[in-house]
Amino acid sequence: MKFKSLVFLLLSLFIIQSCSSIPGVKEPSEAEINAESLKAYNEVKAKAKISNNREWKEMVDRVARRIAKASGENFDWEWILIEDPQVNAWCMPGGKMAVYTGIMPILKTEGALAAVMGHEVAHATKRHGKQRYSRAIKGNLIGAVVGGAAIAGGQFLCKTQTCKTLTGLGGAAAGFAVAFFDRKFSRGDETEADHEGQVFMARAGYDPAEAAVVWERMAANNGGKASDEWMSTHPSDKTRMKNLRTWLPQAEAVYSQAPVKYGIGENIR
Q1: In sequence order, what are the beta bridge partners of 80?
Q2: DSSP state of 93
Q3: Which domain holds residue 229?
Q4: Does 120 qualify as catalytic in the annotation?
Q5: What is the per-residue pLDDT across 193-220, written as a single tens digit (0 to 9) for each?
Q6: Could you tell me if residue 99 is inside a domain?
Q7: CA distances, 35 to each of 22, 40, 90, 173 (Å)
């Protein structure tokens, strides 16, 4: 490591560990978080390669639209399909979504995609990202970034690939990027998003039984090792499958009331 980089890194760690509060840095409102989310999302769109796979894009479009409607939230919804081998998907606070092409062949069906997007949308509707951002502020992570210790958009703090692509963001937007992409959701948040997401997919007209099947496919793809970025912060595959099957009767009751039923939808080719 070059000396200059080492100095910046040590300065970052010093500020994070020693400051009980950063003057001028307060817990933001939901509107403020959504504004920083939009900045980070626009940066992702500018730097990522948007997929030109028409069939997959159309599938993501219709699933995202249906899940967003099923959530009941009046967000300024937006979604993209990113050409990238990462097994990844996310939804930022305020309804900014992305699906990575690397996850599509593993899912195999439109219904499985609905389960994944339902889970990610549930994180946004339950304000898990806002809570995570607030926890980061309390831990002085955001203050360090906003205060200028983490140069070039938090490049020394970023660990996940998506966060690293945001090098160049400054101020609060950089802090948001680090907090959202590098800070883990709690296990309780993940379980809540699984539950709510299964309801969303059922309300949107997708067979909720497909939610548990997603994790059979994920486990098979990883040989039982949840090493991919999107999976690394989640409960074990077995736990998720057990939970989703336990909740299935409730989700099936919701599915029975869906005005249009798509079942598992089209196969992903």
Answers
A1: 98
A2: T
A3: 28-256
A4: yes
A5: 999 999 999 999 999 999 999 999 998 9
A6: yes
A7: 21, 9, 17, 9
Q: Of 113, 120, 64, 118, which Cα lies nearest the Cα of 217?
A: 113
Any domain includes 1: no
Q: Please identify which of the residues 43, 120, 196, 229 carries the catalytic annotation.
A: 120
d(CA 31, CA 26): 14
Whether 90 and 124 have beta carbons less than 8 Å apart is answered as no
Q: b/e for 225-244, b at 16 or more Cβ within 10 A?
A: ebebbbbeebbebeebbebb
* Torsion sign over Cα 143, 148, 153, 155: negative
Residue 19 falls inside a structural domain:
no
Would you say residue 109 lies in a domain?
Answer: yes
Query: Residue 240 corresponds to which tokens in the numbers above?
Result: 């998720």
User: What are the tens digits of pLDDT across the range 76-133?
Assistant: 999 999 999 999 899 988 999 999 999 999 999 999 999 999 999 999 999 876 666 6
